[in-house]
Write a structure and sequence with these properties.
The complex is a heterodimer of chains A (about 350) and B (about 350). Chain A has about 350 residues and is α/β, with parallel strands linked by helices. Chain A has 10 helices and 12 strands. In chain A, helix 5 (about 140-155) packs across helix 6 and helix 6 packs parallel to helix 7 (about 200-215). The longest helix of chain A is centred in the middle third of the chain and has 18 residues, at about 200-215. The two termini of chain A are about 30 Å apart. Chain B has about 350 residues and is of the alpha/beta class. The longest helix of chain B is centred in the middle third of the chain and has 17 residues, at about 190-205. Classes of the chains: A alpha/beta (about 350), B alpha/beta (about 350). At the A-B interface, helix 7, helix 8 and helix 10 of A face helix 6, helix 7, helix 8, helix 9 and helix 10 of B.
């Protein structure tokens, strides 16, 4: 793997204002992303996991700088540095027009293969749209040939190009979405829950396809998902988010097999194992629900559900601290009172 | 098993009229559910698993759907023959159901207390006051703090996990003998899923003679929860077995394919290996193949599979499989320790 950096996200914050009352005054902020930093190398897959409302989707959207179109008064700070060949650009500062050339470098695949394809366009038009926008030097014929080539790459017959999305199953539609994302030969694809809407037997096909494409084209993925076994399977590194913060980041084995943060430990122990022989593994069940990001707890945002919380946690906002050169954890009390279940106890080893 | 089954489904046929054509959503499904067990029904979209559940509850929307044939025997009584009023006394009291969408299955304009009390008043004939008192008890039982205060809250004031707890409280209000849970945790986050599954196990412990029918597409949830499992595909039962037998010795190529296609980080020898995917797509129930429903995607299908539907046979005691080639798959039992299906085929 080529280890040169592709994307650096530093202290990214995304706040959506909340208005209330007759005068529609700004009363609070939804702190969807509250100081997130990570980097992705060329050809690397970073898995981003967390429960609903933790801000993982917002991180993906902030990177391609589309949030302003969704919510014009969104407040963003920090930086998203994209390393083009020789130069580095902060995407957050770019205007929509200046952002255009980077949109062909960073593509996106969405969760719902039903609503993410325009039902009035044929497959050819859907996959050709990015080429029409970004590859003006290509002749129409070249573009059409590329569409057919792309369809073949994602495992669809080129004859399907004239059909419309409703004629395809969920898995095939997700393939069309992948072909569209691949069209401009991107360096990075942001995949927002790309397989969670698919049937189990089709999920594996799409995951294999994504791995093949990564191998062939050296694409990096930001793989946003909630299914930890899928994320473990496809990712090189995993970042775990909780209420707008990354609480732990490391290689997939570090995060999955020796999680340090109490939230990661609970999250991983909650994953059911597909083997009845390994039933009854010790669970760390965390009580309660995720607090709202409007009114985040002070200090460490996990403290309201944390099994090892102390009074100090209300004051201190934990920073990511290294536990190995690649493993960072945002909890100062890790490993002090809380003995994490060993692999054996978790039933990972037979 | 010598025990007397609580529920016997025999040759159930539930068909839907889609634009003038009859789709066999459930096509000759038979199974038994015994007291005290958690019976899993696994399948993908369109396999007929939810329609099977709705048929048992007699909640099939008619039109377009209809139970065309078959028997659903509950304690010797055929539910298919019951009229609306007779079924009313069974539904919610003897057999209760919880649904996938905790967001839409509660009525947004009534308080939680009213919705739980409604069941009790309808079936147990208790006074309103007593019903509310019981409702508070039930909410406490399913782990909702401050239950008495929360009775007057509306569904939107609850989170997804809490709403699913309320649904469970409603389902358990009359102490049913059978609880049908249709994808109860699919819409929930994984930590909340763990809480809800834990709760279901706990409640199960309290009623040893009751049964749960758990419908899911998530094999890991099945592995954690169920005693026996039925695998459905194309409206037909493809395999029924004890959960240990099914995961350890899956005989149907579809079951095997499903088990191979999920990532297994818990198995060191599988880490970093490519997943073994089942080729093709789930066929539409309007366009099912004539022979074996799985033949279009099966890696070992022979000519016979395309023309002749195999029967469901009991290959070893209590292990039923619908496959012409079961003798060959039986000869080479494939477990997770063995080679993958596609490699050996």
């Amino acid at each position: 793997m080529n280890r040169s950096p592709l994307l650096d996200v530093a202290d990214l914050r995304v706040y959506f204002p909340v208005y209330a009352g007759v005068l529609q005054r700004r009363v609070a902020d939804v702190k969807a992303v509250d100081g997130v930093s990570f980097s992705i190398a060329r050809g690397e897959t970073l898995g981003l996991v967390g429960e609903s409302g933790c801000g993982k989707t917002t991180v993906g959207r902030a990177i391609i700088n589309v949030l302003r179109h969704v919510s014009p008064d969104v407040h963003m700070s920090g930086s998203v540095t994209y390393h083009a060949d020789e130069t580095a650009v902060n995407l957050l500062e770019l205007s929509t027009k200046k952002m255009m050339p980077y949109r062909r470098r960073i593509a996106m695949i969405f969760q719902d293969p039903y609503s993410s394809l325009n039902s009035r366009l044929s497959v050819r038009e859907i996959v050709r749209e990015p080429l029409d926008l970004h590859e003006s030097s290509m002749s129409p014929r070249q573009r059409n040939e590329r569409v057919e080539w792309l369809l073949e790459k994602v495992g669809l017959q080129p004859e399907y190009a004239e059909r419309y999305p409703h004629e395809f199953s969920g898995g095939q539609r997700q393939r069309i979405g992948i072909a569209r994302a691949l069209a401009t030969n991107p360096d990075l694809i942001i995949c927002d829950e790309p397989v969670s809407a698919l049937d189990v037997s089709v999920q594996a096909q799409v995951i294999n396809l994504m791995e093949d494409l990564r191998e062939e084209f050296g694409i990096a993925y930001l793989f946003i998902a909630h299914d930890l076994s899928v994320v473990y399977h496809i990712s090189h590194r995993i970042a775990v988010m909780y209420l707008g913060n990354i609480v732990e980041i490391g290689t997939r084995d570090e995060v999955y097999f020796s999680p340090k943060h109490p939230y990661t430990q609970a999250l991983i122990s909650a994953v059911p194992v597909s083997d009845p022989q390994k039933r009854g593994k010790q669970r760390i069940v965390i009580e309660g629900d995720i607090p709202t990001p409007i009114n985040k707890p002070s200090g460490c945002s996990f403290r309201t559900r944390c099994p090892i919380a102390r009074p100090e946690c209300a004051q201190l906002t934990p920073m990511l601290e290294p536990h190995s050169p690649t493993h960072f954890v945002a909890c100062p009390y890790v490993g002090q009172e809380f003995a994490p279940a060993t692999e054996e106890e978790n039933g990972f080893l037979q | 098993m010598e025990r007397k089954p609580l529920l016997q489904v025999r040759n159930l046929q539930t068909h839907f009229n889609i634009e003038g054509r009859w789709a066999r959503a459930v096509d000759g499904v038979s199974f038994d559910v015994y007291p005290g067990e958690v019976f899993g029904i696994v399948g993908e979209s369109g396999s007929g698993k939810s329609v099977t559940a709705l048929s048992i509850m007699k909640l099939i929307p008619d039109p377009p759907g209809r139970i065309v044939a078959g028997e659903i025997l509950y304690r010797g009584m055929d539910l298919v023959q019951l009229d609306y009023h007779e079924m009313y006394r069974i539904r919610g009291k003897e057999i209760a159901m919880i649904f996938q969408e905790p967001m839409t299955s509660l009525n947004p304009v009534f308080t939680i207390g009213m919705q739980i009390a409604e069941v009790l008043q309808a079936h147990e004939g208790v006074s309103e006051e007593d019903a509310y008192y019981r409702a508070a008890e039930l909410l406490t039982q399913v782990g909702i703090p401050d239950a008495e205060k929360r009775l007057d809250d509306y569904p939107h004031q609850f989170s997804g996990g809490m709403r699913q707890r309320v649904m469970i409280a409603i389902a358990l209000a009359c102490n049913p003998s059978i609880l049908i849970a249709d994808e109860p945790t699919t819409a929930l986050d994984v930590t909340i899923q763990a809480q809800i599954l834990e709760l279901m196990v706990e409640l199960k412990e309290q009623r040893k003679d009751a049964a749960i029918i758990l419908i899911t597409h998530n094999l890991a949830v099945v592995a954690e929860m169920c005693h026996r499992v039925m695998v459905m595909y194309g409206g037909k039962v493809q395999e029924i077995a004890d959960v240990f037998e099914l995961f350890g010795n899956p005989l149907h190529p579809y079951t095997n394919g499903l088990l191979q296609s999920i990532p297994r980080p818990d198995l060191p020898e599988y880490r970093g290996k490519r997943l073994v995917a089942i080729p093709g797509n789930v066929p539409s129930i309007l366009n099912l193949p004539r022979g074996c429903k799985f033949c279009t995607r099966c890696s070992i299908a022979i000519e016979r599979c395309f023309v002749e539907e195999p029967p469901l046979i009991e290959i070893t005691p209590d292990h039923f499989v619908r496959c012409h080639l079961v003798e060959t798959t039986l000869a080479q039992p494939r477990t997770f320790d063995g080679q993958s299906f596609a490699e050996t085929a």
